[in-house]
Amino acid sequence: MSTLTSNSKVQLAATAVVSAAVAAGAILSYQRLQENNRVSRLKQSIPQSGTGVEAEPAIQAVTPIGPIPHPDKEDAHNQALAHRAQAGDFDDELILEQLARNRVFLGDAGLAALRSAFVVIIGCGGVGSHACTALARSGVQRLRLVDFDQVTLSSLNRHAVATLADVGLPKVQCLQRRLVAVAPWVRFDLRLQKFEGGVAGQVLEPWVGEDGKRPDFVIDAIDNIESKVELLKYCHDQGLPVISAMGAGTKSDPTRVMVGDIGASFEDGLSRATRRRLKLLGVSSGIPVVYSTEKMGEGKAALLPLAEAEFQKGAVGELGVLPDFRVRILPVLGTMPAVFGYVAANHVILKITGYPMDYQPAKARDKMYDAILAYVQASEEKVVRSIEGGRVDVCIGLKVPITPGDIAFLVEEAFRGRSAITGIPTKLMLIRWKKPEGTTLVRIGEGNEEQKSSNLRLSDLVCLTKEEAVRHVKEVLLGDKTLEDLYSPEVIELVEARQKEAEAYERYR
After folding, report:
1. Averaged over 310-338, what is the pLDDT?
2. Domain 73-353 fold
């Protein structure tokens, strides 16, 4: 009897499970059918090429760009769909279904913030194209693309969406052409121009018709050092959130790519050069960058020098696409720009949506730079007083032409954060290296309007520990000993090399 009862319960439970599964299957099938019907109706409502109905172009750039040459059926279909989607004639449930994985990850509020965001991408090559693709696929609906260049055959090893059919198209137009087929609701503002400091206000202006909405984020994917520095300085000064992609060229290890503050990045040539220039402009931290910590070594790719035949064609600066643009061929493994681009896009997505994240902090050394600047000021007053016969009045109001940014550059970049004599990285100071042969005092004006300053330059200074600096002032600058009396030839050679490096950067101050 108990066995029969048990079997009856099992059969009843099995029947219930089967019934629930059938019901669930029916519900899911109905939902899928409804979704398919919505998609089908949307597609069928779009006129196909050759029907005699000309598709209206999708909302394009503020700066006019010509139509796609020789558009095919897919182009016409995609542009028509994009026009309707941007006009609001697109089922929002379909958009949310396409973004469902992001929605459950970021939450409704996070996805809403992403969908309302406005992001500017400057540089639409290997890095920028992948960043743009990731943002469009993730839900960002306002993308301003800025680039002066066209798709070339050599672009195809690393560009996110370009095909052979796109060769010769502006890179910004190529991205819009391909991505409207993925996310037709995205509004593209295409700017066919090179970024320079003089056009920063125009390129980073608010989105038209959005009540002055400023960019929520700027992605710097520029590979020209001049333009990169101008962009980052402008964003820093204007309070615009920006992330900068450093050098993907010659890199091969994707596990070494990371996000860190510009003041903390290392093992990256472009990052180092950018950081040095920014410090001389007073920006030593506060800008996140994507960079690689991969070390170069024997057998690895390196920057290719120009062939002698290229020099014979004319001045090196005239060989590039634009004046002052890079002319050397940079070896690039096609996968690495994609890694850099997706890391940059990932950072932007998480920042806009408020998702928890951290990146390597910059060294909090502003107080140290101020203390070093005060030491430079005091030591220069001692030198001037000594040269001027011990008169105290000549030092009253004396100014030194050095800023905290200069101090940061010299300590961290030129001298690598170490004493030039012992390599000790603590209690660092800057001090004049050579004893002046004549007066260092510069006077302008007379009486109450007189300005007094030191003729000190960046290339005059050396980084020492405080104890080493005290001895240097006493025995060299105010005493009778020579550099050769105190230091080895190796130390003197090292200091001279570092000072030449500083001298080369003085023109960027």
Report:
1. 58
2. Rossmann fold (3.40.50)
